[in-house]
Amino acid sequence: MHDISLRNHKPLVTVAARNADVRPRAAATYKAAVLGAGGGIGQPLSLLLKMSPLLSHLNLYDIANVKGVAADLSHCNTPSLVTPYTGAEELAESLKGVDLIIIPAGVPRKPGMTRDDLFNINAGIVKTLVEAAADYAPKAWINIISNPVNSTVPIAAEVLKKKGVFDPKKLFGVTTLDVVRANTFVAQQKTLRLIDVDVPVVGGHAGITILPLLSKTRPKTEFTQEEIEKLTVRIQNAGTEVVEAKAGAGSATLSMAYAAARFAESCLRAIDGDADVYECTYVKSDVMQELPFFASRVKLGKDGVEAFVHTDIRGLTEYEEKALQALVPELKGSIEKGINFVNKQPAAASV
């Protein structure tokens, strides 16, 4: 059993919070590209990435409005050089030489819209962007944020397979927001120090496929059955909570950007040689035999996923075990939907 550090579960602390004039270490010359940097998630995500001491270059790509974002961020006195790329004709250049690709591109959720409603639009966008990533940055780590993640990650995998460059250790669906929410809600309800709380979240990244394992909460915490049920539903529906609160003005952009930046920082730390990096993420997996993709805690190493923490889904409560089995059909359907989308070879969406 791996010794799981809580280091990853502490609030994101960036270089600006410590010293705005920090110089990166000699080995810290990593490059990242944000595809969809002009959007509601892309802009705050780019700001948080600009504050990372591990980045020397930050490439911002979008179909429009990204030059202003880059100009704005370039005034921040942190090490990374920000470069904008606009439109399909500049997509290839934005990807050359990058170590990490983060994809928040796509349309946001609106009131009454499920993640599945986003599929037809976002699936085509992700397919096109990953095709470019396969051609121009085949060895880069890829973080998929575009919803529905349960389907867009299998889409990305199929695209990479067709291009002959699929490395299952380097393709990630970012489900960190589910962990962030679980930690926050538990800490608030139980009056715990947030920095101490760690709730693993497994399954997928939509509705009942999001399964917080409250019995595995660290530090060990007792919950009534009513608390378990209410917390589970709130974590599963937290995205809708934000969509409704914004009343048509957007979805969970700021918390998603925070979670994505935390996961990106974990990826960069692992690439940089940190041997103590653990995160929950949606990846090609053998944790559940019925599901080729599954979110669970993994250990990250220099080459990507190094190990799966199988102990998280052992010794579950009866409630968790039933919830785990209940999510299988829905998640399996979403995975198949993504795979079928690529294999039917629809026309790529415009990016």
TrEMBL record:
UniProt-annotated catalytic positions: 205
Positions contributing to substrate binding: 109, 115, 147, 181
Record key words, sorted: NAD, Oxidoreductase, Tricarboxylic acid cycle
This enzyme's EC code(s): 1.1.1.37
Family annotation (CDD domains): MDH_glyoxysomal_mitochondrial
GO biological process: malate metabolic process; tricarboxylic acid cycle
Binding site for NAD(+): 36-42, 62, 122, 145-147, 256
Superkingdom as given in the UniProt entry: Eukaryota
GO MF annotation list: L-malate dehydrogenase (NAD+) activity
Catalytic activity: (S)-malate + NAD(+) = oxaloacetate + NADH + H(+)
Domain Lactate/malate dehydrogenase C-terminal residue range list: 175-341
Coiled coil (residue ranges): none
Residues covered by the Lactate/malate dehydrogenase N-terminal domain: 31-173
The keyword NAD is annotated on this UniProt entry: yes
One GO cellular component, as annotated: cytoplasm
Keyword NAD: yes
Family note: Belongs to the LDH/MDH superfamily. MDH type 1 family.
Subunit structure: Homodimer.
Protein name per UniProt: Malate dehydrogenase
The organism of origin for this protein: Selaginella moellendorffii (Spikemoss)
Lineage: Eukaryota, Viridiplantae, Streptophyta, Embryophyta, Tracheophyta
